[in-house]
Amino acid sequence: MAQGGGRGSEAQSGRWPPDAKAARSDRAVRRYDVGVAAGGPRTGAGTHYRIGALSPVPRAAVHFYDELSRLGFVEGQNLQTDRQGYGLRPEQFRQQAAELAKAKVDVLVCVGAAAIRAAQQATATIPILGITDDMVGEGFVRSMAHPGGNTTGSASSPPNSTVSGRNS
Is the pTM of this model over 0.85? Predict the structure, then answer.
């Protein structure tokens, strides 16, 4: 499994999000802040966030990007999305995920089980926001309340409290 470089405490502790003390000194929290946990952008002058996408559809997660915009993350100003990952066939996800991990994007937005699986195989440190039918049942997270690892997301079916399954 590929590892992102210099990621800090979340990789060491296995907890996500990292605790508040680690948050202050760790770039991972800035990644996590990209609309997922922040009440608004915590950006300094020139701070720019990069989102990598893996999706079988041309422009996925529209509501996610709407929320980012509402929070002050503006495409072309303080936010950049790598659009090469949109409209891919499932067999292309693995290579694109590896390229995005190597580029050290700040977060991976993945639509569908195959995309999430490819992202989890590519990195254990870059946060993964997955969108699929059943995050728990498919083994991507332990529970929706406490996903564990570097993967969280949204599921369209009711979550189970726990599952024994894969969790990177």
Answer: no
